[in-house]
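Thread: Newbie trying to understand structure tokens

Hi all, I'm a second-year student working on a class project, and my supervisor (Dr. K.) asked me to get a predicted structure for one chain before our next meeting. I've only ever worked with sequences, so writing a 3D structure as a token string is new to me. If someone could post the tokens and maybe explain what I'm looking at, I'd be very grateful. Here's the chain:
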Amino acid sequence: MSEPRSVAEITALIKNRLESDSRLQDVWITGEISNFTQASSGHLYFSLKDGSAQIKCAMWRSSVARLTMMPRNGDAVTAHGSVSVYEARGDLQFYVDIMRPAGVGDLYRQFEELKSRLEAEGLFDPLRKRPLPAYPRKIGVVTSADAAAFQDVQNVLRRRYPLVEVVLSPTLVQGIDAPAQIVRALGRLNAREDIDVVLVCRGGGSIEDLWAFNDEGVARAIAASRIPVISGVGHETDFTIADFVADLRAPTPSAAAEILTPDVTELRQTLDRLAYRLDDAVRFTFDSRRRGLAEKAWALKQVSPAVRIRTIRQSLVTLDRAMLSRERGRIALARERLNGLGIALVAASPQAILDRGYAMISVNGQRVTSAQELSANTEITIEMKDGSRRAKVE
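---
Reply by user tm_fold:
Sure, no problem. This is what the structure looks like when written as tokens:
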């Protein structure tokens, strides 16, 4: 009897055996999806079954990102991957890295080949994607005039942003003639100078219905467009080459219309808020400037000539009163001196004094007896023994 082994050893042994078999590491399996679950991490968990058996499957988020459609329960698919064991539960598991609908293998291969080639050329590079205008004035729409998708787009635009003008560039969106017409429709819009953004759209359908948007000519026309292009082709789970090469992919035509335009109701609310804030800012600015102006006016008033003149006038009144008082004293003193001179004149005449070499000074006929009576620029009369002369005090 051999030594017993642990469960972990056995599951590890089975895992190693499976992973060492090249036939099980590069295998295609066709079956129907069941027990489908998409985890919050983005990974997919499901089973593939046929009439007699089933196998558990997992598809990691990095591989999910390359899917052109999101699988659902009941879908018949062909999946590529490797077989191994999930050791924690001992489950046999198929790890899927490629998945495509069963029955459309040729179309899917063409899709993958063109996708790989254009991706290698850089047509899907996020760095070449252009931003969409925030407030478009004219939106060019490439679709069929009779398509329900066009009606959906118009309804959304009328509801959200009635200010925008829609310019339809009509084209077939399905069939053998559709790719060339789509290219021409894009060209017509690019020939205009007034189109702000282009919406390429159509409703959902099978891979055959959407095949016009997997055409290489359409992809290159979108990439060459001088106007930003948003793709709204099919339903949320549908992917086309046009989605990858456009500046932005929307899950549906209606969603593309919503992405392209702001909500006019929200815009009004925003404008109301901005108007209120602007009114507040203007009022605050005026109040602040008014206070500043009042403060400057008060400061200016303090240094204005009117204030200085008033102060000087008050000083002059005080000086005038003082001078009047002094003049009265001086007049009294002069009167006393005059009385004394009168007495002296009785003894000696003025002419005699002049004859002795003295002179008399008068201002406007008034004799000057003191230098304090004379100020600069005063015109005086000097009387001497033989006549008089006029002079000006310096």
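A couple of things are worth pointing out once you decode it. Residues 7-103 form a domain with the OB fold (Dihydrolipoamide Acetyltransferase, E2P) fold (CATH 2.40.50.140). The chain has a mean pLDDT of 86. Feel free to ask follow-ups in this thread.
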